[in-house]
Amino acid sequence: MRIVLGVGGGIAAYKAASLLRLFTEAGHNVTVVPTESSKQFVGPATWEALSGNPVSSSVFDEVEKVNHVRLGHDADLIVVAPATADLLARAASGQANDLLTNTLLMARGPVVFAPAMHTEMWAHPATVANVATLRSRGAVVIEPAVGRLTGKDTGPGRLPDPETIFTAALDAVDSAGPAGPGALAGTTVTITAGGTREPLDPVRFLGNRSSGKQGTALAAAALAAGARVRLIAAHMDVPAPEGVELIRVETALELRAAVHRAAADSDVVIMAAAVADFRPAQVVETKIKKRDDEADPVITLVRNPDILQELVRARDEAGTGTPTLIVGFAAETGDDTSDVLEYGRSKLARKGCDLLVLNRVGRSLVFGQDETEVRILSPDDSPEAALESAAGTKAEVSARILARITAELAARRS
């Protein structure tokens, strides 16, 4: 495997030498790309001796080979360790002011960042936002270790052990699986994301806790796999990935119209949005007032259309060409009657979709969180079958979901 090891300018740069040795002893071909500031800690001679490859940090070296393009384009994996606060910020904003950031922009395979910085830097809102942005684009950002930092301080921000980074990097490659770079080239994928809002009056609405993080992570993973991606976005707390065709909606009925239009030329439709089951029967044109001399208002709800079921029915009735692969999402809570898995199986049978991604939700589960755990259900699964599951960051889980979708598409076309 061809690996680029980026080294940021932090005191932990010396630990990257051990990580490099782990990669080379496992038989991988590693090219080290240090930042200029990292050379203050470890010199190029060390990296060349340990990797057996020439080392550069300038876009003007090996110009005849277009090195700033070739390295990222050809790499099966890029690992940045240590990833300083400055390097994370430059990567998140898409800067290309040295060889390493150029290489990151050209990445076609998994990218793994191993942060190392002072605790206050790691907790700063700017770094938190940069990490969220990178993860939303499909990058893996490992949580830093807790321990002794430079000086006398102790806390989160320490570079993880080289063995931890090594394992996480290889896991990222495994997670990409068949949904790696180019696997979905020529494929159109439509994804819904976020939570719909159903107006009560000009001020108020009925909504839900969906952040849109899972939908945007799926969009980033599909883009990384080479697909043309259409993102139908209701309310989201995160930005849409660069490169998607973005369609904004607010209500369930608006989302319904948009996804039916989009499905006509889509190879895959992923219904990851949290669509309201009900909407107010009547929307009041003026703000509902609270008056002491009047009774409290009574809000009557009506059922929204079942968009997922409609998509399946429309596809099956058309019956021409290669059918669209339709993937549903089910955010469920168990109760005294059934557990989450039983509700998921029932929903899969009722909806008729090809795959159903099931997760358990609650006030502190899934909604708004960066990590999740799902099970992927198929109509072909027997009750006794071991269900495919995925856990980790929403970017990592998205890679697993896209890998399963890619495998399903390949089976249909074979």
From TrEMBL:
<comment type="function">
    <text>Catalyzes two steps in the biosynthesis of coenzyme A. In the first step cysteine is conjugated to 4'-phosphopantothenate to form 4-phosphopantothenoylcysteine, in the latter compound is decarboxylated to form 4'-phosphopantotheine.</text>
</comment>
<keyword id="KW-0456">Lyase</keyword>
<comment type="similarity">
    <text>In the N-terminal section; belongs to the HFCD (homo-oligomeric flavin containing Cys decarboxylase) superfamily.</text>
</comment>
<dbReference type="GO" id="GO:0015937">
    <property type="term" value="P:coenzyme A biosynthetic process"/>
</dbReference>
<feature type="domain" description="DNA/pantothenate metabolism flavoprotein C-terminal">
    <location>
        <begin position="184"/>
        <end position="407"/>
    </location>
</feature>
<feature type="binding site">
    <location>
        <position position="277"/>
    </location>
    <ligand>
        <name>CTP</name>
    </ligand>
</feature>
<protein>
    <recommendedName>
        <fullName>Coenzyme A biosynthesis bifunctional protein CoaBC</fullName>
        <ecNumber>4.1.1.36</ecNumber>
        <ecNumber>6.3.2.5</ecNumber>
    </recommendedName>
</protein>
<dbReference type="GO" id="GO:0010181">
    <property type="term" value="F:FMN binding"/>
</dbReference>
<feature type="region of interest" description="Phosphopantothenoylcysteine decarboxylase">
    <location>
        <begin position="1"/>
        <end position="188"/>
    </location>
</feature>
<dbReference type="InterPro" id="IPR005252">
    <property type="entry name" value="CoaBC"/>
</dbReference>
<dbReference type="GO" id="GO:0004633">
    <property type="term" value="F:phosphopantothenoylcysteine decarboxylase activity"/>
</dbReference>
<dbReference type="InterPro" id="IPR003382">
    <property type="entry name" value="Flavoprotein"/>
</dbReference>
<feature type="binding site">
    <location>
        <position position="329"/>
    </location>
    <ligand>
        <name>CTP</name>
    </ligand>
</feature>
<comment type="similarity">
    <text>In the C-terminal section; belongs to the PPC synthetase family.</text>
</comment>
<keyword id="KW-0285">Flavoprotein</keyword>
<keyword id="KW-0288">FMN</keyword>
<dbReference type="Pfam" id="PF02441">
    <property type="entry name" value="Flavoprotein"/>
</dbReference>
<comment type="pathway">
    <text>Cofactor biosynthesis; coenzyme A biosynthesis; CoA from (R)-pantothenate: step 3/5.</text>
</comment>
<feature type="binding site">
    <location>
        <position position="351"/>
    </location>
    <ligand>
        <name>CTP</name>
    </ligand>
</feature>
<dbReference type="GO" id="GO:0046872">
    <property type="term" value="F:metal ion binding"/>
</dbReference>
<feature type="binding site">
    <location>
        <position position="287"/>
    </location>
    <ligand>
        <name>CTP</name>
    </ligand>
</feature>
<keyword id="KW-0436">Ligase</keyword>
<comment type="pathway">
    <text>Cofactor biosynthesis; coenzyme A biosynthesis; CoA from (R)-pantothenate: step 2/5.</text>
</comment>
<feature type="region of interest" description="Phosphopantothenate--cysteine ligase">
    <location>
        <begin position="189"/>
        <end position="414"/>
    </location>
</feature>
<feature type="binding site">
    <location>
        <begin position="305"/>
        <end position="308"/>
    </location>
    <ligand>
        <name>CTP</name>
    </ligand>
</feature>
<dbReference type="InterPro" id="IPR007085">
    <property type="entry name" value="DNA/pantothenate-metab_flavo_C"/>
</dbReference>
<keyword id="KW-0460">Magnesium</keyword>
<keyword id="KW-0210">Decarboxylase</keyword>
<dbReference type="GO" id="GO:0071513">
    <property type="term" value="C:phosphopantothenoylcysteine decarboxylase complex"/>
</dbReference>
<keyword id="KW-0479">Metal-binding</keyword>
<keyword id="KW-0511">Multifunctional enzyme</keyword>
<feature type="binding site">
    <location>
        <position position="347"/>
    </location>
    <ligand>
        <name>CTP</name>
    </ligand>
</feature>
<dbReference type="InterPro" id="IPR036551">
    <property type="entry name" value="Flavin_trans-like"/>
</dbReference>
<dbReference type="InterPro" id="IPR035929">
    <property type="entry name" value="CoaB-like_sf"/>
</dbReference>
<feature type="domain" description="Flavoprotein">
    <location>
        <begin position="1"/>
        <end position="172"/>
    </location>
</feature>
<dbReference type="Pfam" id="PF04127">
    <property type="entry name" value="DFP"/>
</dbReference>
<comment type="function">
    <text>Catalyzes two sequential steps in the biosynthesis of coenzyme A. In the first step cysteine is conjugated to 4'-phosphopantothenate to form 4-phosphopantothenoylcysteine. In the second step the latter compound is decarboxylated to form 4'-phosphopantotheine.</text>
</comment>
<dbReference type="GO" id="GO:0004632">
    <property type="term" value="F:phosphopantothenate--cysteine ligase activity"/>
</dbReference>
<dbReference type="GO" id="GO:0015941">
    <property type="term" value="P:pantothenate catabolic process"/>
</dbReference>
